[in-house]
Design brief:
Blueprint (H helix, E strand, L loop, with lengths): L1 H30 L3 H20 L9 H28 L2 H8 L2 H12 L6 H19 L11 H21 L1 H6 L2 H24 L11 H26 L4 H7 L2 H12 L8 H17 L13
Length: 305
């Protein structure tokens, strides 16, 4: 029971961090950083912190055949997802972005069905349709009167591409992620991402307003949160939780992210309440829950699809 309680605390903390990081990133994008500047800052910090941590752990050798997956996975999951994440928040609200990102398990199932030929049950198909209906509600009824209404479609497009990129990363790296320690995967993927991004971002880093003498304590606090908590701490908490809880339970906790991000965004004025948002949340949460759960079998626990 103690292990289960620790697992719940870990996954709750990780998803709270991920949820809070959405409005935090939005605040950084509004004034202090560009999407590319924010992305490469996280990439370089990731290289530093995870290679440093690996020095204190037993060395783990990566097979040569797995480096191609790590390379592509690093580009998709780190550069692609993180850049699209920050780019989307330039043009749309944290509420809309977080609700669309909650569709990730649904997209993972669709990609696994198409490319890995995994079986899909009627219940999961219904879950997919319910989740998609929530996403459609978000897109169709997104507030056209907001100050970024002219770019709202662009923000939604980047959000959907972010979902697709992250889901593709999860499907592609599923086997290597089970084969190696999280730190081993992270240090190589961050290194690949940083090396690829560096030629395109070298001139961009010097133009980040947050690195000027005009940056405030609040701006630095936001960046520290993104680096220490979202990029580092949450990364360790998720594998810790997966060792102590059913995979499906961990997946369901992901539904906290849009709820936390929405509440915080509305409290700080990044978005405002409309009737369609809670309905969209309910549809997405119900649909995702149906997708990530399997039928309960005697003496067995739920497993992730």
């Amino acid at each position: 029971m103690k292990d289960k309680q620790q697992g719940v605390l870990a996954v709750l903390t990780a998803n709270t961090i991920f949820g809070l990081n959405i409005p935090v990133t939005k605040a950084l994008m509004e004034t202090w950083m560009t999407p590319m500047g924010y992305t490469v800052t996280r990439m370089f910090f990731g290289v530093l912190i995870f290679w440093l941590i690996s020095l204190f752990l037993k060395k783990e050798q990566v097979e040569k055949r797995d480096f191609s997956v790590i390379f592509i996975g690093g580009l998709m999951g780190f550069i692609g997802t993180q850049f699209l994440f920050s780019q989307a928040l330039q043009y749309t609200s944290p509420v809309i972005f977080s609700l669309l990102m909650a569709l990730t398990p649904v997209v993972v199932l669709i990609l696994s069905t198409v490319f890995l030929k995994e079986a899909v049950s009627l219940k999961k198909i219904v879950g997919i349709l319910v989740s998609i209906s929530g996403a459609i509600l978000i897109i169709v009824l997104s507030d056209s009167g907001s100050e970024m209404s002219g770019n709202q479609f662009l923000g939604i497009l980047f959000s959907l591409l972010c979902v697709l990129c992250y889901a593709g990363y999860l499907v592609l790296t599923r086997k290597v992620s089970m084969k190696y320690r999280p730190v081993t995967i992270a240090k190589w993927m961050f290194l690949v991402s940083a090396l690829v991004a560096f030629p395109f971002s070298f001139s961009e880093l010097g133009n980040q307003y947050i690195y000027s003498g005009n940056a405030t304590v609040t701006a630095y606090a936001f960046l520290v949160f993104a680096l220490l908590f979202s990029t580092t701490l949450a990364f360790f908490l998720m594998p810790y939780a997966l060792k102590r809880l059913e995979a499906s339970t961990v997946s369901i906790f992901m539904n906290l992210q849009p709820i936390i991000a929405s509440i915080v965004a509305m409290l700080v004025g990044q978005d405002h309440f409309t009737w369609d948002k809670p309905i969209a949340v309910i549809l997405v949460v119900i649909g995702v829950s149906m997708v990530v759960q399997k039928r309960h079998k005697p003496k067995e626990r739920f497993q992730e699809c």
